[in-house]
Amino acid sequence: MSDKSSPNPRPAESGKRRPSVGVQIGKVIVGSGAPIVVQSMTNTDTEDASSTAKQIAELARAGSELVRITVNTPAAAAAVPRIRERLEMMGVDVPIIGDFHYNGHQLLESEPACAEALAKYRINPGNVGFGKKKDSQFAAIIEMALRYDKPVRIGANWGSLDQSMVATLMDENHTRAVPWDASHVAREALIRSALDSAQRAEEIGLARDRIILSCKVSGVQELIAVYRDLAARCDYALHLGLTEAGMGSKGITASSAALAVLLQEGIGDTIRISLTPEPGASRTGEVIVAQELLQTMGLRAFTPLVTACPGCGRTTSEFFQELAKTVQEHVREQMPLWRVKYDGVENLTLAVMGCVVNGPGESKHANIGISLPGNGEAPSAPVFIDGEKAMTLRGDNIANEFVGILDNYVASHYHARGD
């Protein structure tokens, strides 16, 4: 077998998007230069159609453009059409992806309404089947995708590597003049699992524009190495995500560190930030992080960005922090309405600054900015609109007045849809 690997692939030109074949998923296009798509996954019991539909709606309204659900039992598969119906009644038109492991071929065959209701199927080549059954069970899912005209994500995962593939590559490695280390062999097994499965899907009849690939690991450097290599060896659309990223700041930091490098190199057509939510916390946190990552990198715009200083000994108590929080929460609450009503409002920039050092200058760079008084400064807060000082706020009602200025600016500066 020829050595197709590229152990040290050259990174793509910074900022230049890697060419890929576009894949249509419902009304969403992944790849082919389309905007990078944000997706998420539910953590409800899919058998509970009501709670699953509710969480899908929450994720979609937060900005998730694709939502994946677990389909692991006959009852879960039977619930999928009911979930789709509930979403339609709520006016939520987000593509739903079915996540299949072990028994996906059986579930799709026994529940044709599920196969029809899903917008895409996700298959893990490491556990789609074992031994002699692997090829036939993989083929059965691909044939169902063909029957119902559904795209497929072939998602290899570090935690469920195809052991027969690993054994084959270990044997190959022994014949090399300079053997690879174990991590390189594991990376190659992950990539080959995805690429060989995609080739098999095409041989069965699934077109290239119906295939998305992913190769997920839980280590930042490993993920970067895997995707650089994978991107250099194919033109399939790629889904990015650091699997088992973790909870809170650790998960956010790890995912951002890995995905930012790849996105900057033009690699990636759709992303998910796999965060473990705090107990009782909303699942939508991972959607917001994904949006903020793309927006701060200048790759997409989702919601007005609020620039705020971190605070220091010059700033007055916590007032500017409270104002920044109030503005940020107001923007998040209003954005679903603004997105429907106004064109381009997601590009609005805001600044909430705490003292005279950088306050006026930073405020002038934003569409709307306020420079609050720091320690020893005059008790007044100049407001800048599009670079010009527009007014000065004083007193105890600055927060409400500033939010009102923001609302008035949106209504007067952005074109209302349908006008």
Automatic annotation (TrEMBL):
Sections of the chain in a coiled coil: none
GO molecular function: 4 iron, 4 sulfur cluster binding; 4-hydroxy-3-methylbut-2-en-1-yl diphosphate synthase activity (ferredoxin); 4-hydroxy-3-methylbut-2-enyl-diphosphate synthase activity (flavodoxin); iron ion binding
Reactions accelerated catalytically: (2E)-4-hydroxy-3-methylbut-2-enyl diphosphate + oxidized [flavodoxin] + H2O + 2 H(+) = 2-C-methyl-D-erythritol 2,4-cyclic diphosphate + reduced [flavodoxin]
Pfam families membership: GcpE, GcpE_C
EC number: 1.17.7.3
Cofactor: [4Fe-4S] cluster
Gene3D superfamilies for this protein: Dihydropteroate synthase-like, Sulfite Reductase Hemoprotein, domain 1
Highest taxon, organism lineage: Bacteria
Chain positions recorded as [4Fe-4S] cluster binding sites: 309, 312, 355, 362
Residue ranges of domain IspG C-terminal in the record: 306-406
Entries under InterPro entries matching the protein: Dihydropteroate_synth-like_sf, IspG_bac, IspG_bac-typ, IspG_C, IspG_TIM, NO2/SO3_Rdtase_4Fe4S_sf
Keyword 4Fe-4S set for record: yes
Disordered: annotated segments: 1-21
Bound cofactor: record note: Binds 1 [4Fe-4S] cluster.
GO biological process: isopentenyl diphosphate biosynthetic process, methylerythritol 4-phosphate pathway; terpenoid biosynthetic process
Domain IspG TIM-barrel: 23-290
Pathway this chain belongs to: Isoprenoid biosynthesis; isopentenyl diphosphate biosynthesis via DXP pathway; isopentenyl diphosphate from 1-deoxy-D-xylulose 5-phosphate: step 5/6
Keyword terms, alphabetized: 4Fe-4S, Iron, Iron-sulfur, Isoprene biosynthesis, Metal-binding, Oxidoreductase
Signal sequence bounds: none
General function of this protein: Converts 2C-methyl-D-erythritol 2,4-cyclodiphosphate (ME-2,4cPP) into 1-hydroxy-2-methyl-2-(E)-butenyl 4-diphosphate.
Family assignment from sequence similarity: Belongs to the IspG family.
Protein name: 4-hydroxy-3-methylbut-2-en-1-yl diphosphate synthase (flavodoxin)
Gene name of this polypeptide: ispG
